[in-house]
Amino acid sequence: MKRIRILGLCLVIACAFGAVSVASSASAAEFGQCVAKKKSKYTESGCKTVAEKKGKPDGKGGFEFEPADSCYAQKKGNFTESGCKTVAEKKGKPDHKGSFESAPSPAYTTSSGPAELITPGFGAVKCSASSGGGLIESGTKTSTQTSFTGCESSGQKCQNTATEGNIVTFPLSGTLTEPAAGKAETVLKPASGSYLAEFGCTGVAVIRTGGTVGGNNTPVDTTGTVTTFDFEKGVEQNLETEFSASPAFEPAETLGPFPSEQVGVFTLTGSPAEMIHVN
After folding, report:
1. pLDDT of 21 above 70
2. In CATH, what class is 13-29+105-277?
3. HEC states along the chain?
């Protein structure tokens, strides 16, 4: 039988950046900011050290963690009500004397070096680089889409655009989870439909990849504009790939689905600065 080669594609986010069919433990990690606030949970700007008295939280710290896209009580805030819709104004100009503030939902860009999808028994397909972007939508939700370049299967070009070797994923959604204490992981799935990407490899096959895939987010509990999203073997690797002689994927001419694994390291850059809070 003719050997078929594959390429699996997906990215984050936030990247760094809904519930998935196969997920980690219940999410405790969150995207957001550590903000100065009286009578709060933490003693310092990293939101790591809980304010305590005699070993018990006393709520007298000077900082609080606020999830992305939340509206929180804050003196001299920009909004007058808890929905953060009405700007505090005087004579038609913002006066910053409201009682509420909103935590931002930053947009971000993504980039990577080589990315590889490995399917046991079918070999590996590689892309040389990628770029893309997305949005941190809430404390646990992200959205993203990625364009991979230099994609090939043992010398055979793979693509789904007019540019040779270029593959663009479908829109993806991500869920931030905390699989173990002190660690953060984003699990990606198709934003709609069943597949993360569909493309053809010249003289090989038409290929589509579905399921979910996760990557480790670092650093955690550190405010910044750059994070790393690392796809490792065995980390929420639940990709499945099918191969067909035609885009119709008729059952008689389709092989799979077969389990696959994504490998690659992605850099997410966004503004304003955020943190992934796991404390």
Report:
1. no
2. mainly beta
3. CCCCCCCCCCCCEEEECCCCCCCCCCCCCEEEEEEEEEEECECCCCCCCECEECCEECCCEEEEEEECCCEEEEEEECECCCCCCCECEECCEECCCEEEEECCCCEEEEEEEEEEEEECCCEEEEECEEEEEEEECCCCEEEEEEEEECCEECCEEEECCCCCCCEECCCEEEEEECCCCCCEEEEEEECCCCEEEEEEECCCEEEEEEEEEEEEEECCCCCEEEEEEEECCCCCEEEEEEEECCCCCCHHHEEEEEEEEEEEEEEEEEEEEEEEECC
Spans of all domains in the chain: 13-29+105-277, 32-102
Residue 99 clears pLDDT 60, i.e. is over it: yes
pLDDT at 203 over 70: yes
pTM score: 0.84
